[in-house]
Amino acid sequence: RTVIRSRAKLSYRVAQEVLDEPEKQWEGEYLGCGDEDVPQIVQGLVGLSKMAGHLRSLRSKRGYLKLNRGSSAQLDFSFNEKSFPVGCKVGTTFSTMGMIEELMLMANIAVASRLYSKHPDVAMLRRHAAPGPHTLN
Length: 137
Hints:
two-stranded antiparallel sheet; 5 helices; 8% strand
């Protein structure tokens, strides 16, 4: 069992700002936390960023599939009240997105390793529901 005590809820943009200027005197209100938690939030972000970079480097040395998303823009769509698309713009990407992606991969690998060590003869697969007819049109 695990208990997570969240001290702040940061958007990718705010987390990126903190990583870009870790020496800045950040206000707790801006980071969504108490002023007393700011040093730990900043230090934690910097540490996680370094760890994610190290993990990415290890995966690169071992060989991995790299999808070059830098050349393909993320698109943000806007919809009307009937859920029809009415607009599209190029979205903003932050390096913190890659950091979170790397940490999520680490968590998935850790869970898969633990499951395999406990149940080596069982395969666990994620099965998605069949797409609805409206999705295929």
